[in-house]
Amino acid sequence: MKYYGRICHNLESITTEKILKKIPGVMFQNRKYVCNQCTNKDQSLFMKYYCHHCHKMTVYCRYCINLGKVQSCKDIYVIESHHERTKGFYNLTFELSEQQLMASSKVCDAIIQYKNLLLYAVTGAGKTEMIFEGISKARQRGDNVAIVSPRVDVVKEVYLRLKEAFEDEDIDLMYEGQFAEFNSTFVVSTVHQLMRYENHFDVVIVDEVDAFPLEMDNQLMTTIRKASSKQSSHIYLTATPNQALRSLFKTSDIIQLPARYHKHPLPVPVFIYNKIKETKLNHKFLKTLKLQIEQGRKTFVFFHDIEYMKTVYAIYKYHFARIEFVSSIDELRHEKVKLLRENKIDIIFTTTILERGITLSNLDVIIVRSDMFTSSAIIQIAGRVGRKVKQPDGKVMCYHNGITKNMIRAKHEIIQMNNLAKQKGWLI
Ligand SMILES: [Zn+2]
Ligand SMILES: [Zn+2]
């Protein structure tokens, strides 16, 4: 492999690549420390210690430590970028919908002109397929392409789909613990891993940009900018764009994609006043869950708080044989998700970790205390339902202790997308 466009900590693996510059890992500039690997300037993230190699105090950056420690007493190397053209060939085993074709041509235009674009697409619109043609055009021109997401599970899934379509391309997959194998001409990675690059990518596609924690927005943009060539195109894909993201684009550069691939509308949340107590069995809730099983439906029950979920779970677990709970701190979560896919669980209590990624048929969701959720979380959760062509609908039940603005906003946005899809003639 070649280290084109990368920031290297030593020159051991460098062969024919050209070294652009040699700089200290951390420098002191305008009375502040600055990390030359990740551009971090937050002074609280720099640590000092006595270096026994140099016999003096050294400063290192904690923010990018899992990409390898960079410090003030050691130089890092920026390797020159490089461009390789390919045929950009890809397979597509099905036809794109009218909406996908429209989106695909917008993406191509933006890439060809090195412009930015925000694709605001409902869950289940088939976003990945909309970027194939654009990637192909970019690779034919020799552009370096990166597809990034904040989330490792999304990165792995997108990689598998791209690998299947672009079988002749050398695609690098990168996340923590998974390293590049090829020349970084076509990379699928977490946003974090993009910190390894400087001035290299001509096209950066950010998938599920809304999954990025808000407080890290600035770092996200800085990382992408630093990894990108002077002239580059950035495409953002999201189902729930926040105001900060929208404000970065002209209205004409925000493309709304309101229809799901199967052309059925999004399920609209139903608000149900129902307080779920931690101490007492709720008969309405129990009856609903029993009915779900009788009807052969699966149920995801979402909670905003792990402890609350566990206490409530303890009350209901005796009533069902195939019930489980899962959370982000659950060590068995991958096993539990596997059981779910294998159809061995009927009801799963969960925190928001299941809000993305998992697609099951016959699925309905209940959001307990939906008054505690943000509108984008409600939209993401509702987006789990009715994804399959054979099962395009389902229920989104929002239990609440009082309707909130966020709940209304979520419902309103879903109805608006459905209306827009209908107007465009993109629904059956
Ligand atoms: Zn750093
Ligand atoms: Zn040292």
TrEMBL record:
<dbReference type="GO" id="GO:0016787">
    <property type="term" value="F:hydrolase activity"/>
</dbReference>
<keyword id="KW-0378">Hydrolase</keyword>
<dbReference type="GO" id="GO:0006302">
    <property type="term" value="P:double-strand break repair"/>
</dbReference>
<protein>
    <submittedName>
        <fullName>Putative ATP-dependent helicase</fullName>
        <ecNumber>3.6.4.-</ecNumber>
    </submittedName>
</protein>
<dbReference type="GO" id="GO:0003677">
    <property type="term" value="F:DNA binding"/>
</dbReference>
<feature type="domain" description="Helicase C-terminal">
    <location>
        <begin position="285"/>
        <end position="428"/>
    </location>
</feature>
<dbReference type="InterPro" id="IPR027417">
    <property type="entry name" value="P-loop_NTPase"/>
</dbReference>
<dbReference type="GO" id="GO:0006270">
    <property type="term" value="P:DNA replication initiation"/>
</dbReference>
<dbReference type="GO" id="GO:0043138">
    <property type="term" value="F:3'-5' DNA helicase activity"/>
</dbReference>
<feature type="domain" description="Helicase ATP-binding">
    <location>
        <begin position="108"/>
        <end position="259"/>
    </location>
</feature>
<dbReference type="InterPro" id="IPR014001">
    <property type="entry name" value="Helicase_ATP-bd"/>
</dbReference>
<dbReference type="Pfam" id="PF00271">
    <property type="entry name" value="Helicase_C"/>
</dbReference>
<dbReference type="InterPro" id="IPR001650">
    <property type="entry name" value="Helicase_C-like"/>
</dbReference>
<dbReference type="Pfam" id="PF04851">
    <property type="entry name" value="ResIII"/>
</dbReference>
<dbReference type="InterPro" id="IPR006935">
    <property type="entry name" value="Helicase/UvrB_N"/>
</dbReference>
<keyword id="KW-0067">ATP-binding</keyword>
<keyword id="KW-0547">Nucleotide-binding</keyword>
<keyword id="KW-0238">DNA-binding</keyword>
<keyword id="KW-0347">Helicase</keyword>
<dbReference type="GO" id="GO:0006310">
    <property type="term" value="P:DNA recombination"/>
</dbReference>
<dbReference type="GO" id="GO:0005524">
    <property type="term" value="F:ATP binding"/>
</dbReference>
